[in-house]
Predict the 3D structure of the following.
Amino acid sequence: MSLSPMRVVALCSGGKDSSYALWLAMRSGHEVVEVLAMVPEREDSWMYHTANIWLIDAFGECAGLPVRKFAVRGGQEAEQIALRRALSKSGAEGVVSGVIASRYQLTAIESACALLGMKPVTPLWGRNPSGLMREIVREGFDTIITLVAAEGLGPEWLGRRIDMGCVEDLERVSEKYGINVSGEGGEYETLVLDAPFFRRRIEILEARKIWRESEGRGILEVKRAKTSEKPGSTPDRR
């Protein structure tokens, strides 16, 4: 069911799913009043993206949107309480999220919305993972993989750009190991460097790969980054 245009807050981590959902909400006529970044203290958060979340400020600058960060401390229940508190301060009518298949995340967002009298906007819900990934690539999102945590995804995946070849490789890994091609199960996390709605782009200046062999997981830790003009754009005179 389509929703009438309204003022919305976008739950966003700077990763591909939340960024793409934000853009689809914009295209549907919704007014995005702010980006809300939930910042968990735990690496094993049930609901929230953790890898390089500090870059959400650069994301907001590139998108031309204000960013509000909300600290999250504790486990599952604390994460849901934090979500309700953060949304209650938004003053928006709806909440955009990039949830695709996680019934747990969808229920948490819908419950928060019901309590606060807000409407959930979930344009990616129920989408085919492979089809969605190909669509994101076709629409011009420049995205890299910043965390991997699944069998079949080794350190060579860290920093890899998600293009059609990458999607095909993810599909092959999925066939062999059963991962979700879109990473919805936490198999990997991403960072959007450029998007169709960006005024500027994110440029990574320094990063290092950290691989935890005993855990079979790793992260591309971005140490320094900046925003820069997009090719062909009007020079920024600020």
Strands lie at 7-11, 31-40, 67-72, 94-96, 119-121, 142-148, 188-194, 200-212, 217-229. The mean pLDDT is 93.
